[in-house]
């Protein structure tokens, strides 16, 4: 995938996702997931389409920022349902995302990646 196009997407998603809705209602399932966020493991959220998985990710991000004081620069959210990711190639583009993320955000400390609709990546 073109590096400049990918960079634009990273910047856009950061602005849009981290400043998005604040009127979401906390869910009980969030309490079950949050302890696992602290580990260096992948956490997979599954459920039916339109079941609130993306909203749950937003709530978790909000808590990381507000409760755990994680800088927003340490959080990446991407939605691979976005048609602009159609050229995305898992074999090489994830490394490019990581490099661009570090370049754009200059994070310090632990990083949190939220990859929505990841099943669309080939």
In brief:
46% of the residues lie in helices and 8% in strands. With 122 residues, the protein is mainly α.
Structural class determined from secondary elements: mainly alpha
Contiguous uncertain segments of 5+ residues:
none
Radius of gyration: 14 Å
Portion of residues in beta strands equals 5-15%
- What's the total number of strands? 2
Shape: globular
Biggest sheet, in brief?
A: 2 strands, parallel
End-to-end span in angstroms?
A: 13 Å
Number of helices: 4
Measured as a percent range, the helix fraction is 40-55%
Strand order of the largest sheet: 1-2
The SSE order reads: HHHEHE
Number of domains: 1
Q: Mean pLDDT score, rounded?
A: 89
List the helices and strands and how they pair.
Layout: H1 3-18, H2 28-37, H3 53-66, E1 75-79, H4 90-105, E2 112-116
Parallel strand pairs: 1-2
Helix pairs in contact: 1-4
């Amino acid at each position: 995938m073109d590096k400049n196009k990918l960079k634009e997407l990273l910047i856009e998603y950061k602005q849009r996702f981290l400043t998005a809705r604040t009127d979401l209602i906390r869910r009980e399932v969030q309490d079950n997931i949050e302890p696992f966020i602290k580990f260096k493991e992948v956490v997979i959220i599954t459920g039916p389409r339109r079941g609130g998985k993306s909203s749950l990710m937003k709530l978790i991000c909000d808590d990381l920022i507000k409760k755990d004081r994680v800088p927003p620069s340490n959080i990446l959210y991407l939605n691979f349902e976005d048609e602009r990711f159609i050229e995305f190639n898992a074999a090489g583009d994830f490394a490019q995302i990581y490099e661009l993320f570090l370049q754009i955000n200059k994070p310090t400390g632990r990083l949190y990646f939220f990859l929505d609709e990841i099943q669309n990546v080939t």
